[in-house]
TrEMBL record:
Highest taxon of the lineage: Eukaryota
InterPro entries in alphabetical order: Chromo-like_dom_sf, MRG, MRG_C_sf, MRG_dom, MSL3_chromo-like
Ranges of residues in domain MSL3 chromodomain-like: 37-103
Compartments (UniProt record): Nucleus
Full protein name: Protein MRG1 isoform X1
Organism ancestry: Eukaryota, Viridiplantae, Streptophyta, Embryophyta, Tracheophyta
UniProt region (Disordered), positions on chain: 1-40, 102-133, 138-157
Organism: Ananas comosus
Length: 325
């Protein structure tokens, strides 16, 4: 997936298994249930919670079912794999819309309900809240918008729509890599991370200062807000269950999570930002400008993806706790 290379993501050559084989998906031995796919056909394939464009490279019929060896377009070939027909969809306009809907749901809080119900509880309930002052910092003192009857729900959808539509594809794949490492391969980010979140925010400020020829107060305020959001949101909504014990061990003596964790968990914050920004009382124009600045930061992460993100995780400190569903 992307440039990731793990022992669990390699090619699984199931073709050596015994059983009847038929390389034509239209052969007489094929099961008569659901879609079949051909070699060279462009398809959608489920991987984790999302679906991706893929190409069928091999087709085999064994154990009374079709098996397809697929390559995910744009991904490292180490993620090529054999899948059943239940993992594949035809490449149609309807399924393109389905892919977009799944991506939208994955990047919102709608598909992570237990992120709230199964979260690690901090000692103080006050620490678990992203307070109004932090929101003001992130909003960079945007003008308040007037409240009109019937517009509240529309306003709350705005941040999600804007941020998700601009989320770089490479970082979406990074999120799926992250999910795969922790929940499927049982590996964790080795802590403490270097560069950590504080380091990355400082690097971005240096980057913007050099590019703009001056320190922009609004950028500094946004970065301050992001740091506050991250420190308070991490134990509440940014951890998978398998990572909780590691958090308890790594964040001690009043250490800030932003000095321990890195880009992997910072990127998860951006998945949650639409939900958090939905309650920032700002004019639409100011909100649009804020999100453009956040998108610029995402582009900075993407530009430095190889140096900011790990290519493999540590499999030595995973607990037996269940994953976030």
């Amino acid at each position: 997936m992307g440039s990731s290379n793990t022992g669990g993501g390699g090619v699984k050559e199931e073709g050596a298994m015994d059983g009847a084989k038929n390389n034509s998906p239209t052969g007489s031995d094929s099961p008569n249930d659901g879609d079949t796919f051909s070699e060279g056909e462009k398809v959608f394939a489920y991987h984790g919670p999302l679906i991706y464009e893929a190409k069928v490279q091999k087709v085999e019929f064994r154990d009374n079912e079709w098996r397809y060896f697929v390559h995910y377009l744009g991904w490292n070939k180490n993620w090529d794999e054999w899948v059943g027909s239940d993992r594949l969809l035809k490449f149609t306009e309807e399924n393109i819309r389905k892919q977009q809907a799944l991506e939208k749901n994955q990047l919102s809080d709608k598909t992570a309900k237990s992120g709230r119900s199964t979260q690690y509880k901090p000692k103080s309930s006050n620490d678990a809240k992203v307070d109004k002052e932090d929101m003001k910092n992130l909003a960079a003192k945007g003008k308040k918008r007037k409240s009109h009857p019937g517009t509240e729900e529309k306003d709350r959808r705005l941040p999600e729509k804007l941020l998700i539509s601009q989320f770089p594809l490479a970082l979406k794949k990074q999120l799926v890599d992250d999910w795969e490492f922790v929940t499927q391969l049982g590996k964790l980010v080795k802590l403490p991370r270097s560069p950590n979140v504080d380091d990355i925010l400082k690097k971005y400020l240096e980057y913007r200062t050099k590019k703009d020829g001056m320190i922009a107060e609004s950028v500094a305020e946004i970065l301050k807000g992001l740091r506050c959001y991250f420190d308070k949101a991490l134990p509440v909504m940014l951890l998978y269950k398998k990572e909780r014990q590691q958090y308890r061990e790594a964040v001690r003596d009043n250490a800030s999570p932003s000095t321990v964790y890195g880009a992997e968990h910072l990127l998860r914050l951006f998945v949650k930002l639409p939900e958090l920004l939905a309650y920032v009382n700002m004019e639409e124009e100011a909100l649009n400008k804020l999100q453009q600045k956040l998108f610029d930061f995402l582009k900075f992460l993407q530009k430095n993806q190889n140096s900011f993100f790990l290519s493999t995780y540590d499999g030595s400190k995973v607990t037996d706790e269940l994953d976030i569903k």
